[in-house]
Amino acid sequence: MSATAVRQPTPQVARVRVSGGGLRSELRAVKIVWYRELVRFSRDRLRILTSLVQPSLFLFILGTGLSTLSYHSHFHTSLRTLFYPGVLCMAVMFTAMFSAASIVWDREFGFLREMMVAPVKRSSLVLGKCLGGATVAGIQGLIVLLIACLVSVPYNPALIFEVLGIQLLLAFAITAFGVMVAARISQMQSFMAVTQMAIMPMFFISGALFPVSGLPTWLEVLNRLDPLTYAVDPMRRVVFAHLKLGTAERAAFGGGVTWWGFRVPTLLECGVVLALGLVMLVAAIVQFSRTE
Amino acid sequence: MAVASQPQVATPSDPRREYAIYVRDLVKRYGELEAVAGISFEVGQGELFGFLGPNGAGKSTTINILCTLVKPTAGLAYVGGHDVVRERDAVRRQIGLVFQDQTLDGYLTAEQNLRLHAELYGMERDQIQPRMEEVLRMMELWERRRSLVNTFSGGMRRRLEIARGLLHSPRVLFLDEPTVGLDPQTRSSIWGYIRRLEEEEEITIFLTTHYMDEAEYCHRIAIVDHGRIVALDTPDRLKASVGKDRVQLSTADDQRAIAEIKERFGIEAVLAEGKVTLGVPHGEQFVPRLFSELGVGIQAISVSRPSLDDVFMAYTGRTIRDSEASAGDQLRQMAAVWRRR
């Protein structure tokens, strides 16, 4: 270290200067909070491994098990492949929630206070947290992308790029949602209960595991209201664009998400997710900016 | 000399901005509960100031207000020359904090915890490394800087928190119960560090404690009880103000003993810590009279010079340990309020 020259008793040492705020210090705060998420994630090898468990269950157990039923249908493509886009979304979703949950841990273990008394805006802390959660979830998503070959999905740079983009977007929105919830909840059990109640229905209704056209009206309405729908559908389009699907599969999944007969374009769907993410982010910032 | 580095002192004659801490009629209510019930005091630059009282007396609430985490219901508070409500960020840049509960990230190393703090406080990049080494060496943690905080003992964590609180060279350092939950040996070593930093850093220290012996190290102490300051002075002067020795005795019948002491000597004795306790000007001379005149069998007796314990007792009518027991409920109530945030 080059610091030895300064190791004098303090009178000689100039008082450390602390900058007077401003955009630069806010950005530094965002960056360090984001960085902390990455450091903590890299320490948690177990979490990286276990993140593969749930997607694998859906792909290989549920996918294989249900295919005995689909055997009687006209599908030529394995259910494992058809589930894959939904599972890509699911992996990101649960990881993002887990990232947000760490705010509750931080509160229980006191670290949140260290951040809350820092001379930076709460919005910087929340933004750093959401970006960190999104990045970590993006990395998890990449891990699930690695097993693409096991479900007959090709490794294609364009595919990987597009999938990752949607994953980051979804992860950001979900982390923001989780942070907003975490602002009001101080105990881990309650947080888990609340998020389970929100996440599981969102996942099932989103059509991650079934086509969303030709559903009964009640389910179709629920599906169109579910934010996750607008991440699952583009993901499916992106993945299926790189597959050779049979006519039966195309017919089943071709419909996609429609609003009163209007096929919602991919960009608009992504826009919906982004807009919701930003709303959640603002809500989270408002929650955290309150002092007593 | 400290004044030279404070261009932000706006009007030199303004006492609110001259003191390190300036508090007037501060009140904080949580619904029915009045945690801080109108306190006023000021702390000079470079002073080591102690806030002493039982758990639940309002010490932590006061610290939380001073460090801008809690908004006061009424009253004024200035820290480092800035209003804690209206100039929140300016206050935050001036203060270092060591909370009662630990606030370190155990999954990061000591160095990473400090680095995070430096970035959050916007320290100049080229100053971070030298200053980090300085504070880590001062707290004798330099060799452990690459270890995960999870592997640290309670005393090491507390030292790391103090190092972190000092990192951005705050003008005021708040220590909320810096030694609570530590074993006696670690407690005294932490005090060694606090006294050393008092000498080496240009800093005002505001600390809370419910250990009487620790309060002795302070330049001045405020005794707080039920959200009010009941006494404020140097430890010596506070002890002198009591002017009495403490006599404690165990008897066969404490209630009868208290009644008889009042009847024969005209002294109000109370039951404290399970013993009959009374204050008299010359303890040693009083003991023989007790033996000869008291009709109740005495099993044990002790005489002690006034301590801060006696000061506390003189001003509140209870010993601090007795107050702790009754304050337990109040404390839980406060914790619930804090958790609900």
Description of the structure:
- The complex is a heterodimer of chains A (292) and B (341).
- Chain A is mainly alpha-helical and 292 residues long.
- Chain A has one domain.
- Chain A contains 12 helices and 2 strands.
- Chain A has helices at 23-43, 45-50, 53-70, 79-108, 111-116, 122-146, 157-184, 188-205, 217-225, 229-240, 247-253, 266-289; strands at residues 258-259, 262-263.
- A two-stranded antiparallel ribbon of chain A has the order 1-2.
- Chain A is elongated.
- The model of chain B is unreliable at 1-9 (pLDDT under 50).
- In chain B, a hairpin with a 2-residue loop joins strand 1 (21-30) and strand 2.
- Chain B contains 13 helices and 14 strands.
- Chain B has helices at residues 15-18, 59-66, 88-94, 110-120, 125-138, 154-167, 184-200, 212-215, 235-242, 254-265, 283-293, 308-316, 320-339, and strands at 21-30, 33-43, 48-52, 74-79, 82-83, 95-98, 172-176, 204-209, 220-225, 228-233, 245-251, 270-272, 275-280, 298-304.
- In chain B, the strands form 3 sheets. In chain B, strands 6-7-8-3-9-10 form a 6-stranded mixed β-sheet, sandwiched between helices. A 4-stranded antiparallel β-sheet of chain B has the order 2-1-4-5. In chain B, strands 12-13-11-14 form a 4-stranded antiparallel β-sheet, covered by helices on one side.
- Chain B has 2 domains: 3-238, Rossmann fold, CATH 3.40.50; 243-327, Alpha-Beta Plaits.
- In chain B, helix 4 packs parallel to helix 6, helix 5 runs antiparallel to helix 6 (154-167) and helix 9 (235-242) packs across helix 12 (308-316).
- With 341 residues, chain B is α/β, with parallel strands linked by helices.
